[in-house]
Amino acid sequence: MTESMSQSAKPTSTSRTRAFRERRRRGVRLIQIPIKEAEIEALERLGYLEPGLREDAAFIKKAVETLVSDTPLDVAWGYVRAAGNVFTAR
Q1: Is pTM, for the whole model, over 0.85?
Q2: How many CB atoms within 10 Å of residue 19?
């Protein structure tokens, strides 16, 4: 198998399970979220995403991860204010 073929090959069930267990051990969850163009623009305005990288999913992912890690964990205390709404913990 050539190098380019091995890079595009799907991971095996064993490697997916191994990755899942490693994430679980580290307390990390893998989620998918929809993101709007306006939210990508906001990431640029806030300095989390460099202009010109808006089409690169890996850079958008890193920008969102950094934004989340920079955000105070008010959620742990039962509320967070987002876009004028208050979401309460249930």
Answers
A1: no
A2: 12
